[in-house]
Write a structure and sequence with these properties.
- A hairpin with a 6-residue loop joins β3 and β4 (87-89).
- This protein folds into 5 domains: 3-117, Glutaredoxin; 143-352, Rossmann fold, CATH 3.40.50; 363-445, Ubiquitin-like (UB roll), CATH 3.10.20; 451-540, NADH-ubiquinone oxidoreductase 51kDa subunit, iron-sulphur binding domain (de novo design (two linked rop proteins), Up-down Bundle), CATH 1.20.1440.230; 552-608, Alpha-Beta Plaits.
- The protein is 41% helix and 12% strand.
- By secondary structure, the protein is α/β, with parallel strands linked by helices.
- It has helices at residues 3-13, 27-31, 34-48, 52-56, 97-106, 118-126, 143-148, 153-161, 164-174, 186-195, 216-223, 225-239, 253-268, 299-306, 335-347, 349-353, 386-393, 427-433, 451-465, 471-488, 496-510, 514-519, 521-529, 531-540, 597-601; strands at residues 19-24, 60-65, 77-80, 87-89, 202-207, 243-249, 285-290, 330-334, 363-370, 376-381, 405-408, 414-416, 441-445, 576-577, 586-587.
- It is globular.
- The chain has a 5-stranded mixed β-sheet. Strands 2-1-3-4 form a 4-stranded mixed β-sheet, with helices on both faces.
- It has 25 helices and 15 strands.
- Its EC number is 1.6.5.3.
Amino acid sequence: MTVAEATESQATEQEKGTIKITVCMSLSGQAEGAKDVYAEFQKLIEENQGTAELSERGGCEMGQVGCRGYCSRDVLVDVYVPGQPRVTYERVKVANVPQIFKDHVLGGKPFARLAAKPDYYETLEKQARVALKHGGNIDPESIDEYIKVGGYETLKKVMTTMTPEQVRKEIRRSGLRGKGGGGFFTGDKWEKTANAKAERKYIMVNGDEGNPASYMDRSIMEGCPHQVLEGLLIGAYAIGATDGIIYTRSDYSIAVRRLNMALESARERGFLGNNILGTNFSIDFYVHEGMEAFIGGESTALMSSVEGKRPFPKAQPPHSSEKGVFGYPTNLNNAETWATVTEIIKQGADWYLSMGPENSPGCKTWAIAGNLKYAGLMEFDMNTTVGEIINDYCGGILKKKELKVVHIGGVTGGFLPPEKLDTKTDYESLIEAGAIMGQASLSAYDNSACVIDLTRFSIGFNETETCGKCTPCRIGLTLIKNMLDDIAEGRGKIEYLDKLQAMCEEINVTSLCGLGETAVKSVLSGLKYFRKEYERHIVDQVCDAAMCTGLYRYVVKEEDCVACGACIKPCPTGAITGGTKKVSAHIDMDLCINCNACYQACNFLAIA
């Protein structure tokens, strides 16, 4: 369903002549005040109910929608006037509501200042909206709205016209790969689990994202939980699962609530529970709220968490398809994969194969950030290159600055230079370039970013989040973090670079799980493409982006200093002399600890 089709669908759902207003009630929308915006619109509708002005326009009703991906532009409000194109308003505040209501709802003329520009709609149309298909178009808490757009029809098709073997064959033929970062072929996992001999089999959703730059699964579960649930039911039928678990983080409160609502309403309609749709197939699911730990998203650690144990990764084999949660065969895929399963069975393997390269068919949702015009969630054909994402979909680097570095894969990903913009976003192409898909985050930065500073954050995060079970990860990441700190604070030595390279390569091959294996990607890719920046920090003692405060050198511009003495008192080390009796201040850098207190205290911009 394209954006245009979704808009038409919304318009035809309403009574003829009725205007509809929808507000994005995703987590980011609510964080920006969506509840208050919704309440203000509702209040104005009630106040104008029955008036000649609103009656002549056919009346008005309110609705909520889930995440469509443009989180940086929340609160997003859509106004549907029958017979006219949808108008989306961006960054709506409560104070803007009366004007939108007066101009558009009552007056019939969009409020131009906040109305989205044409490139907003164009960017949506260009995307391959599969897992994000219904985000921003239907109420995520209404099973009826999901059914109106064809929801659960695919499940009916599977249950009444296809055998489990036929479903597995279609998924295998589609080439669908797990969208959690590893890229394992989904059909192979299903086949192994289906062929495993056991009295019970589990099927699970991995809805845990600990990467601070990723939120695809959360947004998909928030935006259309029924699409995830339908895909999960199709998978359960295909592998003969007896039990199901939706694993997510306890701090995903909106997703947890909507998932539980979806489960309850699906049971009421006969899509879940005993004898689903009148067949002899029965299964039920529950939502497991896991702890907020990065390691909790690793498959074996996740299963340990479900069992009530500390989320420690386990060595494989045996694989979870043979011995998973509670010792039974288990099939685990992330929420985006399950949402995609629904569409593959609905539209066929050939449709999915028409997207992406041969080794990575289909599409992938990315979390995009950085110095870009458009940021948020977008879903692309895997033939799309990094450069096309940045320039064609995201509007390029802001303020006409130049791109310096692209960080792909989040805290376990790597850095690519502008010369690698032609890299495709499939699994193998990214690995070959020195990055990984990981949890599919992409951040593009201009020259205001420092690669060493970005690397310190990634390594520091991974050091904090390691489970501590294996020595390479537990000790190695700390040693790497200490070296990076030395480089950023002026204590680095040129021989550190070869030591970092060797240590990272060793950690990459000796760590127990994928976290340790990929945690060092930021260092390895940084040394590969940005070694001169490391050398400049060490040899020249300069951070050109001015992000490494340990390399700051403070000087007093005598021509601007008025000798007011304001910089002396906040200095904790007594590094500043002069500054009174018409004598300009002087900073002794041997005593300076780069705390920045003097810079903040000077009201005359005399300290640089």
